[in-house]
UniProtKB/TrEMBL annotation:
Its EC number is 3.4.21.-. Keywords: Acetylation, ATP-binding, Hydrolase, Nucleotide-binding, Peroxisome, Protease, Serine protease. The gene is LONP2. Residues 651-825 form the Lon proteolytic domain. One of its GO terms (molecular function) is ATP-dependent peptidase activity. It is an enzyme of class 3 (hydrolase). Interacts with PEX5. Interacts with TYSND1. May interact with enzymes involved in beta-oxidation of fatty acids, including ACOX1/AOX. The lineage of its organism: Eukaryota, Metazoa, Chordata, Craniata, Vertebrata. It holds the Pfam family Lon_C. The active site is at S743, K786. One of its GO terms (biological process) is protein import into peroxisome matrix. This is Lon protease homolog 2, peroxisomal. SMART domains: AAA, LON. Residues 13-222 form the Lon N-terminal domain.
Length: 825
């Protein structure tokens, strides 16, 4: 083997004091640096140095703990190891420290300490040559039998280890490739030795002395391995004998220990599970999978983690309702009565449920429809789903999808994961115990998306009638038929539902309620429910319809009835306090009467008699029943009205108009205000407007400027150029609310026309519609919600685009929005 030129270490080396071990040449060690001296060494030498020599350190084994940070340098060991810093990793927790990966190069001897602070630097003398020791005949002759003996023990030690381990195989190859003179240091760092023994090897500068000291260490390690192998062999034989004997013990029932009893119980459970699989009505494919898994379970030790996973899987497969279903109640007349009793209005929705019942009566194997109820909060979408299940006589299960962002919630986890579970669909079927329930997928428009997948995409298979007969959950890994499940989804808006998912569902709009409908709902459902919840009776409280109307118009402004329900609950709580106080007074008065009849007298001082008489008078006056809730009682209980009719006040000057907007929470009225001032013809828009509404404003001003002469619109200077030396400011109040959408064009035109003509806009009129640059009025959406918002605000007339006339069918016949074209049509 050819030699290489020797590498000389620097004559001056910074000293790293270690107490975690002894580094020998040719070995690698990881050491922690947390003392002040060593930290300064790493920061100033390793982190700032750029040359190779700056990464060479002198590693000195130090018996005292260097973390003590003594002022004086502790006594240093005479011989150390020059090392190369391969890696530096720093951390500040729990205190600043570094972790170094260092490789030993050669031995050195300290000649003189040149510097102690901030870290020690010493003049050193190199003891080993940094070159490959040539395997020449001369070296072999000098060491003779000592080297051969060491090599023989080293090979014997390595071959006693498991050669299938890559590190052991690599070590065996190194024994042949490395020069034998380098092996004592390397093997001493590998075998089990104490720091004291390693320190003795480090001090052995002579190669012959090093061989003599290392051979006993190898022999000791070999003897230890032989003893370990002797003790392991009988134990392995015993294990085999126990495994072979255990089935015999089970058969003969010799053992009566608790462990065997538990095993017998588990065996009984497995036998019962196998019987359930054989008698179940699951499909052939699922049955094959279960039979295969039960065979694996019998051969599996109970201590294996997969045992519990497999058993849970088989129990789920047995409990699933593969062919178990409920019989639908197909009496359409009874269904109509039940739906009418549970919910007022919602005619379109009830009609669709009755249609399904009629077709189901004519055809037995009808696939379940995929319905989606879209409407503002509080209109009863979720409760309608429960009523549909009640009408059909089916089981009902609700799955809340709001905030779900993991597709495994729908499809389940694969059984390769720890803690895997089936998805919500399969888990819901297990809960209800039938394969044709009504599943309510609540808040389907609020599904999220994350790194774990898109649950909306996972729902595509569930909600597709052509695919869900073969739905495969990742946990089950076999197909399950969902075609008989009636899926009902609810959403506040379709804007956030992916188009592919929306295409699979039948959309049924559930708009808000009119005032008349809210009054009926309150007296049919909400008031009786609140009376029952608060322990009151109609003989104790009466809420007239006039009072209910006041609550609807003055204390709530919503599309649904949730706020109305809360207000009624507040009234019932206040009445409950009065009723409870009256009963308490009646009880006191009855006790005083009994006391007088029994002749029990109390000694009362003369000056206290009038007060006692007045107290008795107060006790004799409980509140009159029933308690009537009028407007004054409303003011005392709910406070001053929250919504006053401010429309006429805000439209008392030109340049103000009322528009209508649609939101996921229902329709809203929206004021548009405009003002003009001297300027340079600029248009200012405020109120957190989106890009679409900004474009509508620019369209409106452009159309008005082009038609100013036709409608005699002039600016403050009498010019038909409306922006000549004039600035216009358009504002949409409630500036903290973001606004956008293509339905404000007509309102902006009306507002600006009022501003430039000086004529007031009627205070009982609201409008909606979009315009084009040529003045055409385009249709918009959400007409019923917008009209309901105008109705709630007390507006008498609503102007809508003519092409939205088809949307008037959903509006009650006792009140209609104003349609200017009806007189001329």
């Amino acid at each position: 083997m050819s030699s290489v030129s020797p590498i000389q270490i620097p004559s001056r080396l910074p000293l790293l004091l270690t107490h975690e071990g002894v580094l020998l040449p040719g070995s690698t060690m990881r050491t922690s640096v947390d003392s002040a001296r060593n930290l300064q060494l790493v920061r100033n030498r390793l982190l700032k140095g750029t040359s190779l020599q700056s990464t060479i350190l002198g590693v000195i084994p130090n018996t005292p703990d260097p973390a003590s940070d003594a002022q004086d340098l502790p006594p240093l060991h005479r011989i150390g190891t020059a090392a190369l810093a391969v890696q530096v990793v720093g951390s500040n927790w729990p205190k600043p420290h570094y972790t170094l990966l260092i490789t030993g190069l050669c031995r050195f001897q300290i000649v003189q300490v040149l510097k102690e602070k901030p870290y020690p630097i010493a003049e050193v003398e190199q003891l080993d040559r940094l070159e490959e020791f040539p395997s020449t005949c001369k070296m072999r002759e000098e060491l003779g039998e000592l080297s051969e003996q060491f090599y023989k023990y080293a090979v014997q030690l390595v071959e006693m280890l498991d050669m299938s381990v890559p590190a052991v195989a690599k070590l065996r190859r190194l024994l042949d490739s490395l020069p034998r003179e380098a092996l004592p240091d390397i093997l001493t760092s590998i075998i089990r030795t104490s720091n004291k023994e390693k320190l003795q090897i480090l001090d052995a500068v002579s190669l012959e002395e090093r061989f003599k000291m290392t051979i006993p260490l190898l022999v000791r390690q070999i003897e230890g391995l032989k003893l370990l192998q002797k003790t392991r062999k009988p134990k392995q034989d015993d294990d085999k004998r126990v495994i072979a004997i255990r089935p015999i013990r089970r058969i003969t029932h010799i053992s009566g220990t608790l462990e065997d009893e538990d095993e017998d119980e588990d065996n009984d459970d497995i036998v019962m599970l196998e019987k359930k699989i054989q008698t179940s009505s699951m499909p052939e494919q699922a049955h094959k999978v279960c039979v295969k898994e039960i065979k694996r379970l019998k051969k599996m030790p109970q201590s294996m983690p997969e045992y519990a996973l497999t058993r849970n899987y088989l129990e789920l497969m047995v409990e699933l309702p593969w062919n178990k279903s409920t019989t639908d109640r197909l009496d359409i007349r009874a269904a109509r009565i039940l739906l009418d009793n549970d919910h007022y209005a919602m005619e379109k929705l009830k009609k669709r449920v009755l249609e399904y019942l009629a077709v189901r009566q004519l055809k037995n194997n009808l696939k379940g429809p995929i319905l989606c109820f879209v409407g503002p909060p509080g209109v009863g979408k979720t409760s309608v789903g429960r009523s549909v299940a009640k009408t059909l006589g089916r089981e009902f299960h609700r799955i809340a999808l709001g905030g779900v962002c993991d597709q495994s919630d729908i499809r389940g986890h694969r059984r390769t994961y720890v803690g895997s579970m089936p998805g919500r669909i399969i888990n819901g079927l297990k809960t209800v115990g039938v394969n044709n329930p009504v599943f309510l997928l609540d808040e389907v428009d609020k599904l999220g998306k994350s790194l774990q997948g898109d649950p909306a995409a996972a729902l595509l298979e569930v909600l597709d009638p052509e695919q869900n007969h073969n739905f495969t959950d990742h946990y089950l890994n076999v197909a399950f038929d969902l075609s008989q499940v009636l899926f009902i989804a609810t959403a506040n808006t379709t804007a956030t539902i992916p188009a592919a998912l929306l295409d699979r569902m039948e959309i049924i709009q559930v708009p808000g309620y009119t005032q008349e409908e809210k009054i009926e709902i309150a007296h049919r459902h909400l008031i009786p429910k609140q009376l029952e919840q608060h322990g009151l009776t109609p003989q104790q409280i009466q809420i007239p319809q006039v009072t209910t109307l006041d609550i609807i118009t003055r204390y709530t402004r919503e599309a649904g009835v949730r706020s109305l329900d809360r207000k009624l609950g507040a009234i019932c709580r206040a009445v409950a306090v009065k009723v409870a106080e009256g009963q308490h007074k009646d009880a006191k008065l009855d006790r005083s009467d009994v006391t007088e009849r029994e002749g029990c007298r109390e000694h009362i001082l003369e000056d206290e008699k009038p007060e006692s008489i007045s107290d008795t008078t107060d006790l004799a006056l409980p509140p009159e029943m029933p308690i009537l809730i009028d407007f004054h009682a409303l003011k005392d209980i709910l406070g001053p009205p929250m919504y006053e009719m401010e429309v006429s006040q805000r439209l008392s000057q030109p340049g103000v108009a009322i528009g209508l907007a649609w939101t996921p929470l229902g329709g809203e009225i929206m004021f548009v205000e405009a003002s003009r001032m001297d300027g340079e013809g600029q248009l200012t828009l405020t109120g957190q407007l989106g890009d679409v509404m900004k474009e509508s404003a620019h369209l409106a001003i452009s159309w008005l400027r082009s038609n100013a002469k036709k409608y005699q619109l002039t600016n403050a200077f009498g010019s038909f150029d409306l922006l000549d030396n004039t600035d216009i400011h358009l504002h949409f109040p409630a500036g903290a609310v973001t606004k956008d959408g293509p339905s404000a064009g007509v309102t902006i035109v009306t507002c600006l026309a009022s501003l430039f003509s000086g004529r007031l806009v009627r205070s009982d009129v609201a409008m909606t519609g979009e315009i084009t640059l040529r003045g055409l009025v385009l249709p918009v959406g959400g007409i019923k919600d917008k009209v309901l918002a105008a109705h709630r605000a007390g507006l008498k007339q609503v102007i809508i685009p003519r092409r939205n006339e088809k949307d008037l069918e959903g509006i009650p016949g006792n009140w209609d929005p104003y349609c200017p074209w009806k007189d001329t049509a």
